[in-house]
Amino acid sequence: MNTPLGRMLSALVLAALLFGAGCPRQTRPAPSSPTTPTPSTATPPAKPAGGVVLAYSVSALSHQFFVDMMAGVEDEAKKEGATLLKADAGANAGKQLSDIEDLLQKNPKVMLITPQDSDAIKPAVEACNKKGVPVVIIDIGASGGRIDSFIISDNEQGGRLAGEYIAKHVPAGAKVAHIQCQLGAANARKRGEGFTAVMKAKGLSVIPPQPADSMRDKAMTVMENLLEANPEIAAVFCENDPMAVGATIAAKSADRLQGMTVVGFNGDPEALDAIRKGEMAATVMQFPYDMGVAGVQQAMKLARGEKAQAQVKVAVELVTKDNIGRFAGYRRKASETG
After folding, report:
1. Which of 151, 225, 297, 324 is most buried as measured by Cβ atoms within 10 A of its Cβ?
2. What is the pLDDT at residue 199?
3. pLDDT for res 171
């Protein structure tokens, strides 16, 4: 058809073919089910900087113990190439709930939490559960919600170590004081249970325990009151080192420290210094840096869709003037110092 009409018809056919070839790339694809996305052969988007996003809510960076724990979390996250979102609750359980709510808005792959209070943290854990974000608890514990992995020191054994040490260094029938952390801290309750079991077995008299909420200043006040009410106190067990240091200061100020056996829990630098000076007798050493590392290791398993270890117990050790040299320089990679 080499006539003008023929040439016009040929041009129209060619245009139709060209137009038809371009239609599939311009039409809107049929909507797909949210649970069964349409397979795509397109090149996947580049991996975001930092890879997996982890979030960590810590109870209080005013405590050296949690500073070291944070260091372990940070170092291991960096090693894994993960982005770490952080929030410090400042020892405020209400603020921690708000912090975790804010962190969840940033869609982390896993939420790591060191609770300020085991009972108060329950709604935050349940919020993570509802959103489908796995939860790793490092230290202290949570009284509700689904926990995917729990990293904890062997607190009950630590309390027993403290009790056995005191029992060896006080006379029969001596009075012993017991200063508690915040009553909502499940890990500290375990320390108290271990300590109390040994005191009972050894037949030692324990003054009714009083809480000082893990704080040095409160422990000073509690110890002052105990000393005033009890003319003779042979020993005191404090469920953490800030309180042990506070109790030591109070006893020293009252001229009652001489001959008193003060035992703490954590292995904080101030406590170690007090042991070197002969003001404190002992502390139960925890390894917070290693706990932070273990927390991220379990979180990364969960981020990869693997099953995490339900509970990881990190060993504790009793530190006295006789073995303190083994812990020289410790604050972070404690397990490497002996």
Report:
1. 151
2. 97
3. 93
pLDDT of residue 329: 62
155-285 is classed CATH 1.10.3660.10: no
The string of pLDDT tens digits covering residues 264-312 is 999 988 999 999 999 999 999 999 999 999 999 999 999 999 999 999 9
According to DSSP, the residues that pair with 332 across neighbouring strands are none
Average pLDDT of the residues in 243-268? 97
Please check whether the domain covering 53-153+288-314 is classified as CATH 3.40.50.2300.
Answer: yes
- For the segment 56-96, what is each residue's pLDDT rounded down to a tens digit? 999 999 988 899 999 999 999 999 999 999 999 999 999 99
**What is the reported pLDDT for 319?**
97
Q: What does the domain layout of the chain look like in residue ranges?
A: 53-153+288-314, 155-285
Fold match, 53-153+288-314 / 155-285: yes
